[in-house]
Design brief:
Blueprint: H1 3-28, H2 34-59, H3 71-97, H4 106-132, H5 136-139, H6 149-166, H7 168-177, H8 186-192, H9 204-215, H10 219-222, E1 225-226, E2 232-233, E3 237-243, E4 249-255, H11 259-280, H12 282-287, H13 289-304, H14 306-317, E5 324-325, E6 338-342, E7 346-348, H15 357-374, E8 376-378, E9 386-389, E10 394-396, E11 402-404, H16 407-422, H17 425-435, H18 444-458, H19 465-478, H20 485-504, H21 510-525, H22 528-561, H23 575-605, E12 612-614, E13 619-620, H24 621-650
Parallel strand pairs: 5-10
Antiparallel strand pairs: 1-3, 2-3, 3-4, 4-6, 7-9, 8-11, 9-10, 12-13
C-alpha cells in the first residue's frame, strides 16, 4: 500500500470515527467531553472489527453471481447501529464508573503535581512549627485531656505561638477565631486575642522597587519628601510618612513583596483542611467549615487589595461624624499594593495613658451608628487601629476589614437591640430569627425562654459584657442557629470594641451604654418628624392598592351573588417545574419504549421458522427484526441510564 493510499485510508477511518462519535453523543442526549467521546468512538471502532468479522465472512461464502437479497441491507443497518451502540455503552459505563472531572487532564495533572509539591513543602513547614510548640500529640490524637482548665490554657498558649510562627494567614486566622466565642472555649478566645500583627520591618531596599513600580516613577519624584524609616510594620504591609508636592502630609502603606503568593498557598491549605473536616467530622459539618473558610479567604483577599481598602475608607468617611475622624484616601495614587492616605496627627490609643469615658462613649456611639444606620462599619476596632488626635478626639485607621449590612439585616438588628432594651423575650427571639437563617425544626418556645433567662442574667446593673457575649453565643449554638458571616462580623467588631473601651475607660459598661443608645435611637424613630415621614411613605406605597380595592371587592361580591364566583389556579406556572416534569415524562417514555422493544425482540428471536431473509447467514425475517429491535432497545435504555448517572453526579452532596 503506497503512502497516498495509506493517507486516504487513515483519513477515511478518522472521518468514520468522528461520525460515530457525533452520533453516539447525539443519541445519548447529553453533553459529554469531546476527548471522552472521541476515545469511546476509537475504542468502539477497534472492537467492531472482531465483532463484525464473522458476519462479514458469511457473505464471502456466496457463489459468484448469487444475490444476497434485500435482507443484506438490513444487516448493514444493524451493523451500523452496533458501531454506534458500542461507543454508547462505553460512554455510559465511563459516566457511571469515572464521572467527568474525577480524572484530571494532562495539563491539570502537571499543574496539580506542581501545586502538590509546593503544598507538601508548606505542610512540612507547618508540621514542624506545630511539633516545635508541643502540638504534635494533639495532631496524632493522643494529647492530654482538656477537661481541666490548666490543660486548655496550655493548649491555647501553644496554639497561639504556633499560629504566630505560621505567618500572616495563620495570624489572621487566629485573630478571627479569637472573636468566635460561639465556637471556642473562653481560654482559647483570651489567648488568641493576644495575637499581634506586628513583625520586623523589611529593609528599604526591598520596599522601594514595589513603590516605584506601583506609582510609575522614583519615590523622590512622586513625593516632595519621604521618610525611609517605617512608621509601622505588619505582616501584610509597612507604613511610611511622606509629603506630597501639594503640601499634604500623608501616610503611604506598601504591601510586602511576595506576600500574595504566600497567602494564596496558605489559603489553599486552609480550604482543603476545611473541606476535609466538613466531610469527615460531624462537628465540621454542623459548623459549616467550608463556608467559614471561604468567608475567611474572601476577607484576606480583600485586605491584600488596597484599592478595596481605599473604597472602604471612602465609604465610611461618606458618613461624617463629629465624634471620630477618618483619614481621606488619595485615590489617584492608590493601587492594589500601595495606599496613600491623609495623615492624622496624634498617638495610637495603645500608647496613650489615662482614661476618658467621653471618648469611649463617642467610639461606641460611632460604631453602633455605622452598624445600625449606615450599614458600613469598621470591623476591627482594636486599640492599634484607633488614635487619640492632638485635639483630643478619636481617629479610626486601617479599613482593610470593613463590614456591610443590607437594609433588612440592619432593621432586624435595630429591633433586636430595642427589644433587649425593653427586655422583651418575644421581640428578641423574633429579631434574632430574622438575623440568622431559620432552621427547619427549632424549638421557638425554648429559645424564647433561654433568651428571657439570658436577659435576666445580663441586663441588670454592673453585669459583665464579656460573659454576655459568651452566653449569647452558647444559646445560638445550642439551638442550631448559624450566624451569617456579615452578622458574625458585627459580633466580632463589638467583641473587639469591648477590649478597646476598657482600655479607654476601665469599668466602662458596654451593656448600659448600648441600651442607652437604643433608647436614644428609639426616641429619634418615634419623633414627630420621623414618624410623619414614615407614615407618608407607607401611605404612598399603599395608595394604589387602596384605590383598586373597592372595585375588586364589588366584583367579587357580584360574582358570588350571581353564582359565578370561581378560582383559577395555574399548575406548573414556573418554567422550572415544567422542565422537570417534561424531563421526567421523557425518561418514563424512553424506559417504556425501550422495555417494549426489548420484549418484542426476545419474542421474535425465540420464534421458530419464518421467511429466510439472509440465506448466507441463515437469518429469518423474525431474527432480523429481533436484532434490530434489540439494538433499538439498548440505545433507549442507555439514553435513560446516562441521564440517571448524570443527574446523580449533579445532585448536591
Amino acid at each position: 500500500m503506497d503512502v497516498q493510499t495509506s493517507l486516504f485510508f487513515s483519513f477515511s477511518v478518522l472521518i468514520m470515527v468522528l461520525i460515530v462519535a457525533r452520533l453516539a453523543q447525539r443519541l445519548l442526549g447529553v453533553h459529554l467531553g469531546g476527548f471522552r467521546v472521541f476515545m469511546a468512538a476509537v475504542i468502539g471502532f477497534a472492537l467492531s472489527g472482531p465483532i463484525f468479522a464473522p458476519i462479514i465472512g458469511g457473505f464471502q461464502n456466496l457463489r459468484p453471481g448469487e444475490d444476497p437479497g434485500f435482507g443484506a441491507v438490513w444487516v448493514v443497518v444493524v451493523l451500523g447501529m452496533l458501531a454506534v451502540l458500542i461507543p454508547m455503552v462505553i460512554l455510559v459505563m465511563a459516566e457511571a464508573l469515572v464521572p467527568p472531572g474525577s480524572i484530571p487532564g494532562p495539563i491539570e495533572v502537571v499543574k496539580g503535581l506542581r501545586g502538590r509539591i509546593s503544598r507538601g513543602r508548606r505542610y512540612s513547614q507547618i508540621t514542624r512549627i506545630a511539633i516545635r510548640h508541643g502540638l504534635g500529640p494533639y495532631l496524632r490524637g493522643r494529647g492530654e485531656s482538656l477537661n481541666d482548665r490548666s490543660g486548655k490554657v496550655r493548649l491555647a498558649r501553644s496554639l497561639r505561638e504556633a499560629l504566630d510562627d505560621g505567618g500572616v494567614t495563620f495570624v489572621k486566622l487566629g485573630q478571627v477565631l479569637s472573636t468566635r466565642r460561639d465556637l471556642l472555649p473562653a481560654e482559647f478566645v483570651d489567648e488568641l486575642g493576644r495575637l499581634q500583627d506586628q513583625v520586623a520591618p523589611l529593609p528599604w531596599e526591598r520596599v522601594e522597587p514595589v513603590l516605584a513600580a506601583e506609582l510609575g516613577g522614583p519615590v523622590d519624584q512622586v513625593f516632595a519628601a519621604f521618610d525611609r524609616v517605617p512608621l509601622a510594620a505588619a505582616s501584610i504591609a509597612q507604613a511610611y510618612t511622606a509629603r506630597l508636592h501639594t503640601g499634604e502630609e500623608v501616610v503611604v502603606k506598601v504591601q510586602r513583596p511576595g506576600i500574595g503568593a504566600v497567602v494564596a498557598k496558605d489559603l489553599d491549605i486552609v480550604r482543603r483542611l476545611a473541606v476535609t473536616l466538613e466531610s469527615r467530622t460531624k462537628w465540621g459539618r454542623s459548623l459549616g467549615m467550608r463556608d467559614l473558610a471561604e468567608g475567611f479567604a474572601v476577607a484576606i483577599r480583600e485586605e491584600l487589595d488596597f484599592r478595596i481598602e481605599a473604597a472602604n475608607m471612602a465609604a465610611v468617611a461618606a458618613t461624617p461624624s463629629d465624634q471620630v475622624t477618618y483619614p481621606v484616601p488619595f485615590t489617584r495614587m492608590c493601587t492594589d499594593r500601595v495606599l496613600v492616605m491623609q495623615r492624622l496627627n496624634g498617638k495610637p490609643l495603645a500608647g496613650v495613658p489615662g482614661e476618658s469615658a467621653r471618648l469611649a462613649r463617642d467610639l461606641l456611639d460611632t460604631l453602633l451608628r455605622q452598624i445600625l444606620l449606615e450599614g458600613v462599619f469598621h470591623a476591627d476596632p482594636h486599640p492599634g487601629n484607633i488614635m487619640v488626635l492632638d485635639d483630643g478626639s478619636l481617629g479610626l485607621l486601617d479599613f482593610g476589614s470593613v463590614g456591610r449590612l443590607d437594609a433588612s439585616v440592619r432593621a432586624a438588628l435595630q429591633r433586636f437591640l430595642m427589644a433587649l432594651n425593653r427586655q422583651d423575650p418575644l421581640g428578641v427571639t423574633d429579631a434574632l430569627l430574622e438575623v440568622v437563617p431559620r432552621p427547619e425544626d427549632i424549638d421557638e418556645a425554648g429559645l424564647e425562654r433561654a433568651l428571657g433567662q439570658f436577659m435576666a442574667r445580663h441586663l441588670g446593673p454592673g453585669m459583665d459584657s464579656a460573659a454576655m457575649f459568651t452566653d449569647l453565643f452558647r444559646i445560638v449554638s445550642e439551638y442550631g442557629l448559624s450566624i451569617p458571616p456579615e452578622v458574625a462580623a458585627v459580633f466580632r467588631a463589638l467583641a473587639t470594641l469591648e477590649g478597646t473601651l476598657v482600655r479607654l475607660a476601665p469599668g466602662f459598661n458596654l451593656i448600659t451604654e448600648a441600651r442607652s443608645f437604643a433608647g436614644r435611637y428609639l426616641a429619634e424613630q418615634l419623633s414627630g418628624t420621623t414618624l410623619k415621614e414614615a407614615v407618608a411613605q407607607e401611605a404612598a406605597a399603599l395608595l394604589p392598592m387602596v384605590r383598586r380595592l373597592p372595585r375588586r371587592i364589588e366584583r367579587i361580591a357580584s360574582a358570588a351573588e350571581h353564582g359565578r364566583f370561581s378560582v383559577n389556579v395555574r399548575l406548573f406556572a414556573d418554567e422550572r417545574d415544567r422542565r422537570y416534569l417534561t424531563g421526567l415524562l421523557h425518561q418514563v417514555l424512553l424506559t417504556v419504549l425501550g422495555a417494549t422493544a426489548g420484549i418484542m425482540a426476545v419474542f421474535l428471536l425465540g420464534t421458530e421458522g419464518g421467511p429466510v431473509s439472509v440465506a448466507a447467514l441463515n437469518l429469518s425475517l423474525f431474527d432480523l427484526l429481533g436484532y434490530n429491535l434489540l439494538v433499538i432497545a439498548a440505545i433507549l435504555v442507555l439514553r435513560v441510564l446516562v441521564l440517571i448517572f448524570r443527574r446523580r453526579e449533579d445532585a448536591p452532596s
